[in-house]
Amino acid sequence: MATLELRNVNKTYGSGLPDTLKDIQLKIAEGEFLILVGPSGCGKSTLMNCIAGLENISGGAILVDDADISQMSPKDRDIAMVFQSYALYPTMTVRQNIEFGLKIRKVPKAQIDQEVERVAKLLQIEHLLARKPGQLSGGQQQRVAMGRALARRPKIYLFDEPLSNLDAKLRVEMRTEMKLMHQRLKTTTVYVTHDQIEAMTLGDKVAVMKDGIIQQFGTPKEIYSEPANLFVASFIGSPPMNFIPVKPAGGRGRWHVPLATDLGQLSLPLAAGDADLDQRELILGLRPEQLALAAEGDSAVLQARVEVTEPTGPDTLIFVTINGTKVCCRLAPDLAPAVGEMLKLSFDAGKALLFDAKTGERLARESKTPAEGSAGNVAQFRGR
Amino acid sequence: MNSVVALPRATPVLDRLQRWLPKLVLAPSMVVILVGFYAYIGWTLVLSFTSSSFVPNYTFVGLAQYWRLWDNDRWWVASKNLVIFGGLFIGISLVVGVLLAVLLDQRIRREGFIRTVYLYPMALSMIVTGTAWKWLLNPGMGLDKLLRDWGWTGFTFDWLINQDRVIYCVVIAAVWQASGFIMAMFLAGLRGVDGSIIRAAQVDGASLPTIYLKIVLPSLRPVFFSAFMILAHIAIKSFDLVMAMTAGGPGYASDLPAVFMYSFTFSRGQMGMGSASAMLMLGAILAILVPYLYSELRGKRHD
Amino acid sequence: MTSAVLKPGLTPSRVLIYAVLILACLMYLVPLVVMLLTSFKTPEDINSGNLLTLPHVFSTLGWVKAWATVRGYFWNSVAITVPAVLISTAVGALNGYVLSMWRFRGSQLFFGLLLFGCFLPFQAVLLPASFTLGKMGLANTTAGLVVVHVVYGLAFTTLFFRNFYVSVPEALVKAARLDGAGFFTIFGRVLLPMSVPTIMVCVIWQFTQIWNDFLFGVVFASGDAQPITVALNNLVNTTTGVKEYNVDMAAAMIAGLPTLLVYVLAGKYFLRGLTAGAVKG
Predict the structure, then answer these.
(1) What does the alpha-carbon distance between residue A273 and residue A277 come to, in Å, rounded to a whole number?
(2) Closest residue in chain A to residue B19, using alpha carbons only
(3) Subunits with at least 3 CB pairs below 8 A relative to chain B?
(4) What is this model's ipTM?
(5) C197 CA to chain A: closest CA distance, Å?
(6) CATH number for the B73-302 domain, one of 1.10.3720.10, 3.90.1150.10, 3.20.20.140, 3.20.20.70?
(7) Which helix (H) or strand (E) holds C96?
């Protein structure tokens, strides 16, 4: 296994055209599982092709075990890839598919057989070895594609949306299986997906991409709880984070934001350090689970009328309007009120985030809890 | 876990060779195509501006060869024949092809066999087709003898040696050869029409002929276009069929531009004028091709 | 689509449809039948009967004489067609592979020029081509005709393979590259085994085109190097001696049989080639 580092990787298809990749900086340790996630066209697949050597980079360096491989041809990089379409050779049997890379590398026959056996056992495809890809189900093809990558024992594995061609049920199964496999084999892996659930569940590290730029690089937990900007915040999490436009009032150290519904108002206090937030256009970011039914005695409570309910089974999603914006709250089904009912909401403001409405950047949170002036649910922010 | 085996690192030279390989492989074909098509067309164009006769020479005479063509009665006959032949050949082939395709699309028994019969002439050489039809239309021994034997005693059919009619004989043979193919194109088009449209029209109370005329055939516009292109292309390049059936005769009554070009260039030692006629043929094809390609490309962009 | 349109059953309109279809069948078949009948007649039979009378004496004399006349040209056609088909198909496959999987700056432009070449009338290149063949010492040889057919067949063979390979996912080539395969290995081990139907279409198309060619044959070859189409035309249009229609028809059958045979045996591929390449005319 190996480490992988990308240094200022750039990719452009010609002057005048927008950069496809801009200053990509990443580093993962041996055995780590890196997720590249983003909407289609964000450059994640291009980045993967660049790592594999299928496309040349325009600038920067790609390092495996601290050695620059960016000028090597794909076959010399010792990298294996699993494709979205699996890309199994249709005229070869499963065995021949798995053997192909080894044969080209002139591995002795006995060793090839041994590897095929190992991989087939690992992936439980021993009974399929004599078949052609056309005779396999989608899930089986997926396993064979993984087997082809595993047989070569490369330094790094690349997965290009490997689960997106499977139906929903199989996708969840294979996801778990991939996680198990990675825990067992501890392979250095780069995994491209547009599915934020895959990103959260599989990755040790996640890089969220948009327009060829890495928006944020961190652990899934960091990405979820401290998104760097509105894009990351909206992309990760389902249902997505609520964005409520607010204008803070008050004064230095005692900022609060007014929230209003048809039925009531609330000034949600913030502790925003020294920043001058007065009348700045901000966006309050609240995950649906950070809104709850108020308990008796809660101080910061907002009345609202239920407009839509969406029972999903484990949760029921309730939609209300705050500051003119639809806001989703995730409630336990047995607590959920019916449409038209009035409810009292409390806010987990300690986890709430503030974003600059213009730049979309998150206002960094104050590192220490300030002592002054606030009891209960107070979000603390430091201006920039 | 270590790599099973690392591929021996290729030397930089081999690596670079691999990178150049696609271009190297394509290069000979590129040269051949650029020379064989485009440079040669340029060469022919140059020749058409010279006084070349039996051997090429490069004494430039400007547009003189084109003016000679303009004044040449035989070229006018060939051009007029192309209009007659092309118009009738394209028109009749389309009508026959569409009609047979629509009829064959009515859940016909033994459809596969019938289709095979309609299409087989396309596999034959135009020379074979011409030979067969020359015999069939032979004045005195062909069709007219058959019909006289069958009791139509006064029947004569001598178009093959009739200066004013001979070009229609070529049309008959050409339609025989190509119409089955047009049928196959339209049949494929009909099979691609969404059946629910037809069911919807039936529910609306439209009769079968109306459905075909108003709904199905208009939806086959692209097929009409391609069929027209193909037929026009065959017509302009038609050479073999005339050579086999009439060799341009009687006299030069059944000349087509391709025949004219061949006989002036290669038999009569008029390379300059032959080249000029070839360029005019090219121009005719471009006049059809360019708008077609333009609309094709524009259509793609709309998708 | 027709299932909803007409319910089968012998309504008057269906009788009419069948009548028209069968009549059309006869129209298409008559020339072939006449050729066959005539080829087995004696000259006396031909003079006394008409196109559709059966031969009084079933005579193979026409065939024997025709074969003796055109035999050499038949083998010329074989000697031209076989190598030209093989070479143009092989080169076309490689070209199509490069143009779909290894695009480079300018390759699309080249493909456009190639496509355009499919439509161009050969009359515009005949003279320079014959000068070149003369310079190369290939004038009036079957080898010269092989060269010409390869060059002017390339546009189509490339088109066939290119159009097939663009439908093949590029990921296959990427996977093979990561597996360590090079340019030719990918082609030979991964793509070519998938291309059997396209190879069939291409071979059949080229075979019919080259076998049936007359223009190149008559311009670039004379005398002993002529292909059978030219020989047939000479035989039929000769003005000296007594016309022997049975020999003409037998010779025409001999010239037409190889392509007819291919059509009957591989009609599916024949039609696919036609629709893909019919523009060549």
Answers:
(1) 10
(2) A73
(3) A, C
(4) 0.88
(5) 13
(6) 1.10.3720.10
(7) helix C61-101
